[in-house]
Every structure is written in C-alpha cells, then in structure tokens.
Automatic annotation (TrEMBL), chain A:
It is found in: Cell membrane. PROSITE patterns: ABC_TM1. Pfam families: BPD_transp_1 (PF00528). This is ABC transporter permease.
UniProtKB/TrEMBL annotation, chain B:
Belongs to the bacterial solute-binding protein 1 family. Pfam families: SBP_bac_1 (PF01547). This is Probable sugar-binding periplasmic protein. Keywords: Signal, Transport. It is found in: Periplasm. Residues 1-22 form the signal peptide. SUPFAM superfamilies: Periplasmic binding protein-like II.
Amino acid sequence: MTKWLEENTPKLVLAPSFIAILVFVYGFIAWTAWVSMTRSRLLPKYEIEGFIQYDRLFASPRWDTAFGNLFIFGTLFIVIAMILGLVLAILLDQNIRTEGAIRTIYLYPMALSMIVTGTAWKWILNPGLGLQAMVRGWGFEDFTFDWLVDPDMAIYTIVLAAIWQSSGFVMALFLAGLRSVDEEIIKAAQVDGIPTWRVYTAIIIPSMAPIFLSAFIVLSHLAIKSFDLVIALTGGGPGYATDLPATYMYAMAFSRGDIGQAASSAMIMMLVVFAIVVPYLYSELRSKDG
Amino acid sequence: MKSYALSIACGVALGTSGAAFAEPQAEVLHYWTSGGEAKSVAVLQEEFAANGGTWTDMPVAGGGGDAAMTALRARVLSGNAPTAVQLKGPAIQEWYEEGVLADISAVAEANNWEAVLPASIAGHMKCEGSWCAAPVNVHRVDWIWANANVLEANGIEMPTSWEAFNAAADKLQAAGIIPLAHGGQAWQDATVFEAVALGILGAEGFHKAFVELDKDTLTSDAMVATFDQMRKMRGYVDPNFSGRDWNLATAMVMNGEAAFQIMGDWAKGEFMAAGKAPGEDFLCASTPGDGFLYNVDSFAMFEVGGADKQAGQALLAELVVGKNFQKVFNLNKGSIPARTDVPLDEFDSCAVLSAADMAASSDNGSLLPSYAHGMALRGAQAGAITDVVTAHFNSDMSSADAVQMLADAVANSM
C-alpha cells in the first residue's frame, strides 16, 4: 500500500488541477467552438448550423477594423517595447551608481493596472485638457496633437500607452538576460580589444535568444488579450476606430445578445494565439528531445 | 463570480426559510443604482413593504445594464430566475421566446391597464396577447435642450425645422459659440441620428426603417438626406467631443459654452440638479419634425414557483402601474408616467409638454419606439445600425456609402 502511494503520489496530487484545466480550459474551448457553429443569440443553442457566424463575422466592417487594429497594435507594441526595453537595459548595464533606483522607476508602470494607465493617458492626450492645451498655453497656438480624437490615428495612442506600461518590464527581463551572459567571454573579448558595441551585437545579444523569445511570448499575449486599456483610453472610439477583437467579442456577447457571433470571434482570436504559440512550443519540445 | 454565486445561494436559503408564511415575496433584479435612480427604487420598496411584502433587492451596477443582463442569463440558465427584472423593449419578447416569462394578465385586467396605457407602449408589455411586463415610466428621447440666455443674446428661436436649426447653428458658430454640445460615444451618435431621422423620414418612414427594417426605406433618398444632415451636425460640434459623457455635454449648455444639446429627458435632471429653471434658464422642445420617440423602462415578470413568490409578483405588478408609484417615481427620475390618467400638477413644464405630446402622438400614430435606446429592435440589429451611424459620424464617409453600408449591416445582422 505504502509502495503504491509512493509511486502514485505525484499523479494523485496533480489529478485535481489536471481535471480542472481539462474542464475549464479545454472543455470550454470546445463549448465555444460548438456555440460558434450555431445561431445562438441571447442564450446558447446547440443545433449546428455550419459556418454562418464566421460568414457574418468576415462580412462585418467592424470586425475588419478590429482585426486590422490587432495587427497594427500588436506589431508596433511588441517591436517598439522590445527595442526600447533592450536599449534601456543596455544603458542600465553600464555599472551606473543609482541603478537600483532607476530600475525601480522604469519598472513601476507595470505595477499600475491598465485601467489607471488608460485613464491617465486619456487626460494627457485629450486635446482640450492635456498636452495640446498645455503647449498652446505656452504660446504655440498652432500646435496640434489630437490623435486621441482622430479616427485614423487613435489606435497609435493605445500603442503609446501600452509601450509606456510594458517597456520597463521588458527592460527588467533583458537586464536579467544581460547579467546571465558569462563574464569570462566578455572579459576575453575586452582583452582582445574588441569595441563595446561589437561585444553587444556579436556576443551578448545573440546569447540572449531565449530571453527574446520569452519577451515576445509575454508581449504578444498581452497584445491579443488587450481589453481594459482600450476601454479606459478610448472606449473603442472615435466611432469604432480603436476596436480590438477582445472588445468586439465583449460587445457582441454582453451588449448585443449575439452569443454565436461572439463565440466565432473568440475562436478566431484563439487561432491567432495558436499561430504564435504552437511554433514556439514545437521548437521548445524539439530542442528538449534532441 | 464565485462569491456572487455564493451570495445567491445565501439569498435563496434565506428566502426559503420565510416561505412558510406565504407572504408576498419578490426578488427584483435591476440596474437603477445611481443616486436619483436608487432613490426612485426605494419608493417602490417602501410601498411593497407597506403592503405586507418582502422585497429582496438585487441591484447589479455597470455597463448600462450589460452586467445585469449577464447576471440574469446566469440565473435563468441555472433554473432560478428572479421574480421581476428591469427589462425593456424587444428584449422582453426575446426572453419570452426562451419560455421563461410569466403571465400577469389577471393583474392587468383587474386594473384595466388596456385603458390607461397608450396602445403602442402596451404592445411592448404583451407577449403573444398575454401581459408579461409592467411599464414604469416614459422617457422621451427626441428632445432638444437649449441655453435660454445664449439664444436670446443671438436672437434665435427654438428651431422647428432642420433648415432653421442649421441657420441658427451657422449664426452661433459665427458668434464663437459651439452650436451643438455632443459626446462622441456610439449611443449618443445614435440618439442624434434617430432624432434627425424622425424629422426627415417622418413618423411613417421611421417606423418602416427602424421597426420593420424595410430595405427600400433604408436605402431611400430620405435616408441619404438624413446622413447629409448628420454630416452637417458633425460640423457643429467642437473638435474635442470624442468620448465625452452626456452629462458633461449638458454642462456645456448650462454654462453657455454651447447652445443646444439633443438628448433624452434624463438631461433635464442635470439642469434641475444645478438649480436651473425650465423656461427661464434652459428651454426644452421636441426636435424638428412630428413624432415622439419613447424609451420605456419596465419590469418583466419571470416564471417562478411557490405561492408566496407568485403573490409577490402580482403585488409588484399592481403597485408598479399604480397611480401613486407612477407619480412619485417619475418625479424623482425626470420621466413621465406611462399611464395617461395621472395628475401632472407637481410635474415641471417640460414633463407636462412631454405628456401632452405623448397623448397627441398616440392618437395620430406617431408614438414610436426609440431605436437608439433598444426599444425598436433587438440588440444585434440595433447594434449593426449604430455601428454604421458612428462610423459615418466619425469619418468622412459619404452619405451614399453610409446608406449602402447600412443596408448591408442590417442584412448581415439577421
């Protein structure tokens, strides 16, 4: 008996969380997939009707905007946050005296919720209250910075606020990565008289590839699930110019009583996540095997 | 969500412990949670208690009722519906089709609702001929509010046609005053749009377009003209309007920064709360054109088991449509009674005007449901129209494109 317990304890301990994940993650993914094939409106219905919800989804100009915004927002957010984080980390890595204090300052935005970030930036970017009004108050009457109320530019304000929020976190990730590079190699390079920028580009950064990958995965899931920032900063507006798939899904499911439509948009969002995560998992698993 | 489920479980446990007495019980799900609204609901609670009932309050704040509807969905799916739920418009019929609404025809007939409610409002309260909901109030949506001093200083009358409105707005703009106070949120864009549409399409055209979703009307020249007028309206708002809340727009009219606002009669509450007097500090009139767009709050009655709960449901329905509650509640909330035989002595001049217009429009068939406030259409269709309206208002889309998009969006939402 004790031997049986000894052998099976890990399985027994893991079983509850395994079952919970099976039901509450994969079970509900399957449920959503099912509902996305039905004509569900106010309450879920279960008669399969084929792909009508997906047809409706792709015929909707609002979904086009939301899906296009996901790529504008995601690409700019991930790329700029990574570059900014890397530059900050390298600058901070120069053995400066007040590193601890500066690191804390840059990391602090991460401690705020997206709602706070969104609200603060809403006021900063509001042309009548924030930056534009301030600069005009200094006497530059022609100064214009009205991205927040310009349907073509509003999506970039969301990029701006999201980068402000997350680049400190990326910096911390990269800083840890920089510190983990073997000092001996760097010293050897310095002895050989290789300039510092070459040390970074040829030795340190390439050896940080796994950190880049983790930063990318963290940032891309932040981008895809972005919801609260949009709600607080623009409310999806002007019009629906800053809608993202997550806000589209929320509007369909909770404001319009169109559950089938919401489920189909959720499935598309999940496919986007899969498209990013599956290659990552694949490369991870393969490198472990090999 | 877990703690919420727990609190429901506790509520149910408490409820059953009192069931032995078979006194009227009602659990009421509503989203009247802001100051004035909460006060209005308290009136009903007191009256319910005074008639020997036990009221279980279930307020769900947030999202203009979205959060309450999510709570309702969870309750209905778990087979434990509340006694009465604040619901309105076609949502009542949508829930009826799910087979979960109760029949309160006995109460309605005993209290002669048919005679005291305007026919088109009574229509919303019936599900296939039987009464299933009780109306609480009537908000008029197609109001235009104005700052009396600003109009007087610029020699402008309240406009009675959209041409007159445009002329007045041009004059105000030249004088450096914002003609139209507006908040760039989708529902506010839709509110202005439907007021314009009522004026240009007329009552019959409005009914065809936004109740019947008639394709020919949706793509008609009059609809193009409606979008043309919306483009003009866009020129009359200040550049900083995006995302502004409606009450801030009302404040702009109050302090003379802007001249007009098109908004339902909840805006009156803001003026009143700031100590402004109707007719002196601010003016109210219906937007140009004939007709009356209503937004009626109501309680839908859900199928419940147990004599005590059914007694509570009947009592609640009777009280809600009762003269006393209709008067006190609407004085608090700024709307007008749904029944037409309530004395209006204590109401202000705007409310009296609203009640007179409601009676007149009910007689000539121009008493119409508001599409922007979820009275005319189901969520998916109304939402599809609002998407087009707000996309047009916030871009430089042409009216012809907007009309085409409107027809496509409506077809796609079916």
